[in-house]
Specification:
By secondary structure, this protein is α/β, with parallel strands linked by helices. Helices cover 50% and strands 12% of the residues. It has 6 helices and 4 strands, in the order βαβααβαβαα.
């Protein structure tokens, strides 16, 4: 009798690890853009990893980051997300630094870390599209 082996096929997942820079406008951009990718642009292919939990010893977060490709998104050049990801789980596949991305596009950071105006929402869209592009690159591999 022929036995069939069932193989579970699941879509490739990419972990997005945003910084937690709440005191900086670029940190706010990071969080909004990552949510847009997770909720609207790439919901079936992305998961978020909570950086504070990751650093504090979150076993599931660290294991995910060791097994699946990750993208770190940092608001500033301190790169807390990238540095901690490398230290705790390995090198991320891509790293995005918002201050560098804004400079590259000639865009100023939002004026406030607490509220975004309409122009800032366009910047969120730009950042989210950049993250989604990196997700697509990973998925194409």
């Amino acid at each position: 009798m022929l036995e069939l082996e069932l193989v579970e096929i699941s879509p490739k997942k990419v972990g997005i690890i945003p910084c937690n820079g709440e005191e900086l406008p670029e940190g706010t951009l990071t969080r909004f853009a990552c949510r847009k990718v997770l909720d609207k642009l790439k919901p079936s292919n992305t998961v978020t990893i909570c950086l504070p939990l990751f650093i504090a010893g979150g076993k599931e977060e660290r294991e995910f980051a060791q097994k699946f490709p990750t993208i770190t998104v940092d608001g500033c050049d301190k790169q807390c997300s990238r540095i901690n990801t490398e230290r705790l789980s390995g090198k991320p596949r891509h790293s995005i630094v918002i201050t560098d991305l804004l400079k590259e596009h000639g865009i100023n950071a939002p004026g406030s870390a607490r509220t975004l105006v309409d122009m800032d929402r366009q910047t969120v869209d730009l950042v989210a599209k950049e993250i989604a592009k990196k997700v697509d690159q990973i998925l194409a591999e």
